[in-house]
């Protein structure tokens, strides 16, 4: 397994992967699914996977009610409900695989409750516990051909859902109904989970969120971001529109963003980094008069995969080590320049899914980026 080769490289003798279910759909369960194929953010069971450099994984669930579906999902034999506690059960399984003491990596360290972590330290007192999030993240950054095809399909589902939303968003109809049409269309296409967002009218200058109980009115601007998961893999597309005739500033904002998206995605390629891509978007926004700390933005770009948000993650006005991560063929990003003007109640966003290739980049999303008319 690729993960076991990475464990050797990082000097790990054993690995613990922790995941727990959340109401928020973007829980960080990608590591669990990557190693076991068990979708750790679904259903109501805490879960822990164990792995040594020479063995198949084991999966421990907090709720025995999910043993049947877990055994159907994973590719190995050892799936069981917790008997003592996660720490003791993990130590016993690792001992069966020949592990006694050594370097133990913990992926999902930030999600482990303090009491559980203290129990890990007590049970593994002869070993050193280290944060192993990057051990898996570095492997997951570069997708295989099979993973890319799943993201390609997830992107297609987002665009089918976007088309349904455009058809449903009409003056006098509620955000809820347009959003519901979008969700329904995605599920009919095979999506297993969604996390889409939208905003319109007086809320256009705010972060898009879940739909509100308001009816579209003439002149309302709209931002819609279909986000769906297919066979574990996430994709996102963002487009902007207007109900009826747009005001001139809405048109101006959209044209600036169109150029920012074009310039930034053209900067994607092997050996490039997040700083290169963000610099192009920022240049265009500044030239258009829409870049500064008085202009609000949500996230600019991030990788996609088994987690909705994977590294590298790039934000406007935020310095981070992710800005310098070099792109490699097989990386997949969603790039979505955006402008939010709360006082003017104006804003727009557009985003495409891009694959880094040997020759540069391939855009996986193909729907029109024109300001759509609702």
Would you kindly provide a brief summary of this structure?
The chain is built from 10 helices and 20 strands.
Describe the structure.
The protein is an alpha+beta fold. Helix content is 33%, strand content 22%. It has a six-stranded mixed β-sheet with strand order 4-3-2-1-5-6, with helices on both faces. Helix 4 runs parallel beside helix 5, helix 7 runs antiparallel to helix 8 and helix 9 runs antiparallel to helix 10. The chain starts with a helix and ends with a strand. The mean pLDDT is 92.
Write a concise keyword list for the protein shown above.
2 domains, Creatine Amidinohydrolase, Chain A, domain 1, 22% strand, 20 strands, Creatine Amidinohydrolase, single chain, 374 residues, alpha+beta
Please state the second-level CATH architecture of the largest domain: Alpha-Beta Complex
Number of helices: 10
The computed structural class is alpha+beta
The fourth-level CATH homologous superfamily of the largest domain is Creatinase/methionine aminopeptidase superfamily
Mean pLDDT score? 92
**Poorly predicted tracts of residues:** none
Portion in beta strands: 15-25%
Largest sheet: spatial strand order: 4-3-2-1-5-6
- Estimated helix fraction: 25-40%
Could you describe the largest sheet, including whether it forms a barrel? Answer: 6 strands, mixed
Radius of gyration: 22 Å
Report how far apart the termini are: 49 Å
Give the domain tally. Answer: 2
How many β-strands, per DSSP?
20
CATH topology term of the largest domain: Creatine Amidinohydrolase
Highest-level CATH class of the largest domain: Alpha Beta
* Helix-strand topology string: HEHEEHEHEHEHHHEEEEEEHHEEEEEEEE
The geometry reads as elongated
